[in-house]
Every structure is written in structure tokens, then in C-alpha cells.
Amino acid sequence: MFSAGACSFSVGSKVRCLEALLGDKENARFLVGTTSLQQPNQIHVLDFDSAANEVTRTQVYAHPSQVQELAPSPFAKDLVVTCGKRVGERAVATLWRMDDLSNGGGGEERAGGVESPTPLVVLTELPQQKLPVSSVAWNVGDESATATLASAHGTALRTWSLLVGGSEATVQDKLELDVSLASSPTAVGALRWDPHHPNYVSYTLGGSVQTWDTRAKSVAFAVEDAHLQAALDIDYNPNKPFCLASGGDDGKLKFWDLRQARQPLLALAAHAHWVWSVRYNRFHDQLVLSASSDSTLALWRVSSISSAPIVELDEQDFMSEAAAGADVVDTNVRRYAEHEDSVYAVAWGASDSWLFGSVSFDGRFCVNHVPSTEKYKILL
What we know:
Blueprint: E1 7-10, E2 15-20, E3 28-34, E4 41-49, E5 54-63, E6 66-72, E7 79-85, E8 92-97, E9 108-109, E10 115-116, E11 118-119, E12 121-125, E13 135-138, E14 147-153, E15 156-165, E16 168-178, E17 188-193, E18 200-205, E19 208-213, E20 218-223, E21 231-236, E22 243-248, E23 252-257, E24 266-269, E25 275-280, E26 287-292, E27 297-302, H1 315-323, E28 330-336, E29 343-348, E30 355-360, E31 364-369, H2 372-379
Parallel strand pairs: 5-11
Antiparallel strand pairs: 1-31, 2-3, 3-4, 4-5, 6-7, 7-8, 8-12, 9-10, 13-14, 14-15, 15-16, 17-18, 18-19, 19-20, 21-22, 22-23, 23-24, 25-26, 26-27, 27-28, 29-30, 30-31
């Protein structure tokens, strides 16, 4: 639980997306999708062994196109939706089943000892729209019998009911929303459901962050100028309703109360270049990760706006952080520089709330831990 060593693994291809396998609560397991133009694309299943402090590739799945986005099911560990794009074709969102997820072999062995990827099983595709799909998201707050997905297609949002049974899945259209803005002709970027209100879905559009109420079919909240030109990622606070974090092309990490969004609750000069990924710790909202094309990953303490602020720091912590010019409540805990290329994605582990993975464009996957001193400040 309190190990601190870092380790890495290279998938050997270009990568832009990474997600933890949230449906698997027993293993520190991550999915990495490749986006190569020259080589066959794949989804790699990477496991972290805390006892050996090493990353192993336990399975490789063949994917028919560049993996632009991964969305593992939060309910079933063998289901994943991908946004995939072949050269010269439109992107397609597909629901797959990952068979033999834990066989430990990484694929079938061919002649000469070379392993061939395991095929994915197609369950269904989301129906094509006027514009290609760019993002998908599961509604983790929906407790109905059928799962709900949202998909972005240019400036249109669609929601879908998904019923999975056996070797097939049924997808039904629920709602279509035109979210275009006269001030921003750009397409929807990041897409997130509100975990506290299952009828709210938030998304980035140009430099803004918008929230639609799918029940009322209208805008519920809007942060018009969240970032300079492009808000690149958002994530909801898991413990405080109406609160989310955003990262953008201005290198800033900002925190918002959507009900009073004229000014951010907190703004941090997080990186020297674009912030591509922002993730709250799923249990301890004092901790937030940001990843950037400046090749670094940063762990932040944002205690002052969390659900459980750190009331006191011991004298040694207070003096050392104050001497470093840091805010003793909200500060950069550590900056990780294991990557040599743009860091496009970061994800907290599903089975260990203190562990997180990151991936850079060159295919390097790294695992790190929250420092023990920081854990004790939260737990004790």
C-alpha cells in the first residue's frame, strides 16, 4: 500500500489513450490503445504487480484501426468501447468484448515464438451520424438496468441505452442535442457524465465547459472562458457535487463550482505547455493529477477546495513547504519526469487508490505512487 518505487513499460507504438479497467476491482490493470499509421493497432492490457514492483503485459488485442479513445465499462471488466479510425475513413464507436482477459499469455504464439494478438469480439457499433464520433463516455451514475452512453459527433451529442446480453448488445437512441455555439465553431472535445446527477453531461467546446441537462434538454451550467482557446479535459470531483477540474491549452489547471462559475475556485499554473489530461483521485479529492505535452506529469494537493480539507500540517511540513514558497494547503506535491514525449493520458488504478499510471506518445507507460508522506497527511 505504501510502496513508492516507479516502473515503466513500452508498448512499442504510438499511444494517445489510457484508462484503468474500472470493472476489475482486484487488480491494478490498465488498458492502452495504440494509434499507429504504419503498424497494426492493438489494445494492451497492462498489470502492475506491487510485490515485484513491475508492469507486465497480460494480454494484447488486435484493433482494426487507430484507437483514438478508450472507454472501459465501469460495470463489466470485459467490455470496452473504442473510438477507432482507419486512414481515409470516418471514426466509428464500437462496443467490444475482451475474451481471455486474464489468461496471462498476451496472445497466441505463432511459429517462431512470436505472439499474435487475441481478436476482440464485436458486440455492436453506435449508429453513424452526420459527423464522425470523437468521444464516448459511460454514465456511472445511472443505476437503471440498461447502461447509458453519451457520444460526441462534432457539435452534436447523442445518448444511448445499451443492453448487453451474451454474445450481442442492443443499442437504442435516447436523445440528440445540438450544442453548437455561435462563438465557437469547434467540435466537442472531452466528455464526462456528472457522477452525482445522472441527467447532467459535461463537455468541452472551444475554450468553454458546458453542462447539459438531458432531462430538460437545455444547458444547465456554462463556463464560457474556462481556458484561453481550448479546454482539453475535464473531470468531476467524486465527493463534491457541482465541482469539476479542467485543463487547457494555456497550461492551467482550474477548479470550478458550476453554480458560480464566473471565477474558478482555484487556478494553478500547472505546466509549460498544454494540459491534456486531468484526473481526480476517486476517493481522496484532495489529490488531482495533470498530464501535459511538456513531457511531465504532476500530482497536486488541492485541500482547500476538497470535501475534507487538511486542517493542520505538522510543524516540519509547514516549515518545509513554506520555505519552498508553496501554499501549505494547495501545492504541487511532486512532478514526475519519467517520460520523454508528450504525456497524453493519466489514470488512477482501480484496486489501489494511491497508484496511478500515465502514458506518453512514444508508447511509454509509467506507474507511480502518491508519496507516503502525503498519504499520511490525508489518512491521519
